[in-house]
Amino acid sequence: MCRHLAYAGPALPLGELLVTPPHGLYRQSWAPRRQRYGTVNADGFGVGWYAEGDPVPARYRRAGPVWADGSFADLARVVRSTALLGAVRDATLSGADAEAAAAPFAADRWLFSHNGAVPGWPGSLAALVPSLPPREVLALEAGTDSAFVWALALHRLRAGAAPSRALAETVRAVAEAAPSARLNLLLTDGGTITATAWGDTLWYLSRSGGGTVVASEPYDDDPRWREVPDRTLLAASRSEVRLAPIEEYAPVIPEESRT
Hints:
- The protein is α+β, with helices and mostly antiparallel strands.
- It is built from six helices and 13 strands.
- The longest helix has 15 residues.
- The relative contact order is 0.18.
- Catalyzes the hydrolysis of the gamma-glutamyl amide bond of hercynyl-gamma-L-glutamyl-L-cysteine sulfoxide to produce hercynylcysteine sulfoxide, a step in the biosynthesis pathway of ergothioneine.
- Its EC number is 3.5.1.118.
């Protein structure tokens, strides 16, 4: 459920990555090629990006499908950035959160997206609520599984955890509480990209003109796209991509707890 993409590299128009490619995120909103769960991502969309000299990202989000927004294509054509995170949403559960539930979520210098679902939400993650300060629980941007997963990751980041550890530990904690959860997480601070492959597809591309793209699925048929194995953490800069098993950053869940 959902499709997302992050980029870090030389400045480009947002549309060059999201709209123009033949199978870009814009088209993936109604015709994804590799989506395993769901078929149409019409429950909201968003993009966040960084302006030169400003570490705090801007966001543009809407509750409806991206193809129904007449302003987005123009915005994406003229706005340039060296880093972005975009997402189109297929809601796990229908609700009244509107654009507040659309990724990317943001705090401080971070942008975040969750591709997946947590079965049994919210009851399945009730045991994790005490791991957050009450103020952070009350400040959730939306009453969704993705917003809660973001709160768990952000709490670790603000406590000083490196992005790779923050995402890996969040995935492990959520997967232990909800073993069938799908937890492809995507995080950027404008210079680096961190992502997890846990239950759905994840790919990356080192662009010939410089820069790195990490996405739920390839936006074109360039043979240089590489798939990330399941249960793997990806850490990328503008010029380098590193992969490692998530278990290197967080304890392994005993097999019996996954059944």
